[in-house]
Give the backbone structure.
Amino acid sequence: MQPSVWQILIVAALVLILFGRGRISEMMGDVGKGIRSFKKGITEEEANAAKPAAKIESKAGDGTVDSSKTADKTAV
């Protein structure tokens, strides 16, 4: 059983009367802010996850490893 057009209109009118037009627009603004915050959090998390990998690659290629120590260990 699907709600008819009249039932939907009555429910919409009741919601409008109970909450008022201003309150509904405030709630929708809050929902929009929440979605934006969620997207920003996901983007920051992905950016933070990518940064350590770049740091590891740069450390491996900068020549900071002392080759004499590794050579001594492999020769023994």
User: Anything to note?
Assistant: The chain has a mean pLDDT of 76. The chain has two helices and no strands.
